[in-house]
Q: What sequence folds into this?
C-alpha cells in the first residue's frame, strides 16, 4: 500500500519547520531540505511505532486512508525526487 503524504515547510525564526499534513507529524531543520528530510524520518518512526503497537490500521484510518486487511511487511518512506516540499510516499506492506 502506497500513501502519498504532503509536507508543508515554513521558516520559523532561524529554523524551518515541516509538517506532514496527513499524520500531523512535525519536525524541523536548519534548512528547508533538512526539515523535509527530518519530517519524512518522523513519519517513518510514527508509522513503525504504530505498527509495533498494533495500531497502524487505526492510525491510517484517522488520517483518512483505508488500510489493507492484513499488514505484514515493513514501513518505508521515499522522498519525491522532483522538488523540495513535494509529496512523499509511505509504503505499508
A:
Amino acid at each position: 500500500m502506497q500513501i502519498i503524504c504532503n509536507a508543508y515547510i515554513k521558516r520559523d525564526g532561524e529554523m524551518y519547520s515541516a509538517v506532514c499534513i496527513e499524520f500531523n507529524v512535525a519536525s524541523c531543520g536548519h534548512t528547508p531540505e533538512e526539515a523535509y528530510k527530518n519530517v519524512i524520518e518522523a513519519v517513518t518512526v510514527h508509522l513503525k511505532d504504530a505498527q509495533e503497537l498494533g495500531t497502524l490500521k487505526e492510525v491510517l484510518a484517522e488520517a483518512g486512508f483505508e488500510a489493507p486487511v492484513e499488514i505484514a511487511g515493513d514501513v518505508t518512506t521515499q522522498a519525491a525526487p522532483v522538488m523540495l516540499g513535494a509529496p512523499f510516499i509511505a509504503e505499508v506492506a
In short: The chain has a mean pLDDT of 82.
